[in-house]
Amino acid sequence: MRGAEESFSGRRVKVLAAGLVALGAAGEVLAGRPVSAALSLTGAGVVAIINFHWLEQLLGSLLQPGRPRVSGPVLVRIMLKALLLIGFFVVFLLVPQIDPVAVALGFTALVAALLVEGIRWGMKGGDEA
After folding, report:
1. How far apart are CA 121 and CA 16, in angstroms?
2. Given CA atoms 14, 85, 108, 45 in this order, what sign does their dihedral have?
3. Using CA atoms, how far apart are residues 12 and 38, in angstroms rounded to an integer?
4. For the chain, how far is it from start to end, CA to CA, in angstroms?
5. Which residues of 86-115 are buried (b: 16+ CB within 10 A; e: fewer)?
6. Which of 2, 11, 33, 45 has a CA 20 to 30 Å removed from the CA of 27?
7. Looking at the predicted structure, is the pLDDT value of residue 92 above 70?
8. Of 77, 109, 81, 107, which is closest to residue 92 (Cα–Cα)?
């Protein structure tokens, strides 16, 4: 029997991503970059983490055994997810102080957290049948 702490954890991914975002934002400030760079990184990281959280919940409700459960709240969540991303990219295009490199780093924090968790999970043996 495998322990619960050994399975892939979306919560652990979100916590690690948040830590990487905070570390990156602090690094931006300590490196003497403008505060807008730290805010760009933080905003992108938060959007990525929220997007991951909603996607995780959406897939959890759709991929249950039996018929897929596509209900009103699921559709609303899909719309909110799309609006969040569209809103972020509109702000990205309209605000000249936003640092594109910092935005890329903010989104990359989630990818790095997913890689770390995936490697950790794989080293533990993954989901053994």
Report:
1. 14
2. negative
3. 23
4. 11
5. eebeeeeeeeeebbeebbebbbbbbeebbe
6. 11
7. yes
8. 107
